[in-house]
Structure formats: structure tokens, C-alpha cells
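User: Could you go from structure to sequence for me? I need the amino acid at each position, not a summary. C-alpha cells:
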């Protein structure tokens, strides 16, 4: 999980940001395909590639995911590369009550240029 925080402003008064990586273990990752057509169409009009389910042990204290990026490290993505990471679609919310170990799912998409 990559989150950005404002570090200051540039000479034109525009905000500058820095990305910080946080390793989240125990996530479930599922590719989305044509059978997931309605789920794969993000609220912001993007075509999502994966659904990532996050464990309750992490979501209980996690900040909202809007604007975050996800690096699938086990699939070869670099956790320190925000430009190569997948982007979270919308603002995922926790499911409560939830009988499983995962209570939040986020659809993520790739921005290639």
C-alpha cells in the first residue's frame, strides 16, 4: 500500500508530495475479467484489473484508501515505485458485520501513460 502525504510547496505554490510504502500481509488478490464486467467498470470510468481484499487486522486501524496505490509485490511489482503501482478506484469501505477475515475489497487499475 502506498500513501502520499504533502511535504510542502514548490516555487509556484503548488503542493509537493512524498509516497510512503506500507506492507500489508494476508491480502487476497483476484484478477477481474470479462465475467466481472459490471464490477470491473470503476465509478471513475476506469477499467479495473484486480480486486484486492484486505484483512480485518489491518483495516481496523487503516486510513481511508481513496487516492492510494497498491503494489502487488508477490506479482513482481516494486513497493517503492508509485508510478508503476495500481491505483485504487473510488473510496472502498469496510463491510460490517463480516464473517470472514477480510472486510474490505478494493478494485485497482493500472495507469500506463
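Assistant: Here is the amino acid at each position, in order:
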Amino acid at each position: 500500500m502506498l500513501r502520499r502525504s504533502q511535504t510542502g510547496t514548490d516555487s509556484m505554490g503548488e503542493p509537493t508530495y512524498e509516497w510512503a510504502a506500507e506492507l500489508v500481509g494476508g491480502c487476497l488478490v483476484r484478477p477481474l475479467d470479462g465475467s466481472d464486467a459490471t464490477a470491473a467498470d470503476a465509478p471513475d470510468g476506469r477499467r479495473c484489473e484486480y480486486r484486492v481484499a484486505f484483512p480485518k487486522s489491518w483495516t481496523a486501524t487503516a486510513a481511508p484508501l481513496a487516492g492510494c496505490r497498491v503494489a502487488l509485490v508477490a506479482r513482481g511489482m516494486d513497493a517503492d515505485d508509485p508510478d508503476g503501482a495500481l491505483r485504487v478506484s473510488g473510496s472502498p469501505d469496510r463491510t460490517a458485520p463480516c464473517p470472514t477475515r477480510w472486510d474490505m475489497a478494493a478494485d485497482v487499475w493500472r495507469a500506463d501513460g
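One structural detail worth keeping in mind: The first helix runs from residue 37 to 40.
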